[in-house]
Write a structure and sequence with these properties.
Length: about 210
């Protein structure tokens, strides 16, 4: 069974994530492929990203500049897959969510693992632009963003009795969870068969070898 972490990416006191998250968590809990853990960024008050190679300590077991950053990296490394619930702020994801991914530093915790998204907004945009930006961010973390998404427009009036009024949202979430299960299994098997070192390491090694003439 794959370990799925659901990341709630907004911390605003009046966040609409509290409408969306219970529904997503319920459907993911019912899905037989996953062992579920919820990571609410309200419970992870990460410092503003300021890590550098001088703050992490031993690269084999980084201490980082703050114990919470170390715990965050270790926690994310436990998962096989991620489902991010994100608002859309100014055509992008919330700053706290970007900061949470920036703090995944040198651990490669998300590397070669799938990331899916459920996004929402208060207007017609439905979080589409937030998902586009999120994909760019997780690619840089060497994760695998999935095409299947759930987008919820006019989130303030989108739910009734805890369920989206639009039945298409239920269909989209079911497809997302099925795809996430498939990709988590495929990538877990691939990781178990052996992983290449991160591209940044291979690039440095190739440049160093070229410079030394070897």
């Amino acid at each position: 069974m794959a370990k799925l972490q659901i990341i709630i990416g907004s911390t605003r006191p009046t966040r609409a994530a509290d409408l969306v998250a219970p529904w997503v968590i319920d459907r993911a809990t019912r899905h037989e492929a996953f062992e579920l853990e919820v990571l609410d960024l309200r419970d992870w008050p990460l410092p503003f990203f300021a890590e550098h190679l001088g703050t992490i300590g031993d690269r084999a077991d980084p201490t980082y500049s703050d114990p919470l950053v170390r715990s965050w990296n270790k926690k994310l490394k436990e998962a096989d897959a991620y489902l991010v619930i994100t608002a859309e702020y100014n055509h992008s994801i919330p700053g706290v969510l970007k900061n949470a991914f920036d703090n995944v530093f040198v651990s490669f915790a998300l590397r070669n693992k799938p990331v899916a998204a459920v996004a929402y907004s208060g207007g017609v945009g439905a979080g589409v632009r937030a998902i586009e930006h999120l994909a760019h961010i997780v690619i840089e973390a060497d994760a695998v963003p999935l095409r299947s998404t759930v987008v919820i427009p006019y989130v303030g009036t989108a739910f009734e009795d805890g369920v989206p009024k639009d039945p298409g949202s239920e269909i989209a979430l079911e497809i997302l969870l099925d795809d996430l299960a498939w990709w988590s299994g495929a990538l877990a098997r691939a990781r178990a068969a052996g992983e290449l070192p991160p591209a940044t390491f291979r690039t440095r090694a190739a440049n160093a070898a070229r410079s030394s003439g070897t």
